[in-house]
Amino acid sequence: MSDFSSIVILTGAGISAESGLATFRGPGGLWEGHRVEDVCTPEALARDPALVHRFYDERRATLTEVRPNSAHEALARLEREWRGDLLLVTQNVDDLHERGGCGEVLHMHGELNSALCAACGGRREWRGSLPPGSACAECGQAALRPDIVFFGEMPYQMERIEAALWKCDLFLSIGTSGAVYPAAGFVRTARHAGARTLELNLDPSEGSLFFHESRMGPASELVPSWVEEILGS
Ligand code: APR
Asked: Which sites bind substrate (predicted)?
């Protein structure tokens, strides 16, 4: 076993790319086909709720067509066998970490398979399409929206994440461009707190210079071999 005792892992769209889910930036990325300001801001939801709901309905529908890959499964093995502290934070809104076997996943940008009531803040699991104006089962208001953190909104559980970053001795980033804050700043917090920092990515990210080590390649290869390494087997 390695000499680390507390690991924080951040994942981005790149870990799900080999499962067939589109990333955001780069060729064929989601932000190539849609403008963020049209589908991923509170103003867009107020201006054209049908377009925003349709965008997330389409992404939610693709989840039934894809499967977790060996990177998701390797992190589930780590969760089962690692004896130290582990926090898995994902920017992804898909359910592939859970379907790959991870029991505890912190979705800082929300989840496609969840609906949020804009009136009472209640949440419920949601599959299929979510028509604008769907009624909340808790407060009865016609205010359900995709449970997605839009640009300009505060990501979820930031206090818990920050506390874990200050405590960890290893910070691992997998499959993210480092383009969006606060997630893009996690490496600096961890490094400032004295953690070792490692990046596994297909291409250099915007934060690469802040990592002690960057390994370039597909997550489906790099993540399983890193888990082997860290478990010492
Ligand atoms: N293996 C590993 N990394 C990969 C792979 C792969 N097979 N394919 C792509 N990548 C890397 C790319 O090199 C890129 O750095 O994944 C990263 C994907 O970057 P983005 O598309 O920007 O996705 P992400 O970093 O998760 O975006 C962060 O931005 O738009 C918001 O809320 C959205 O959560 C998202 C956030």
From this structure: 56, 59
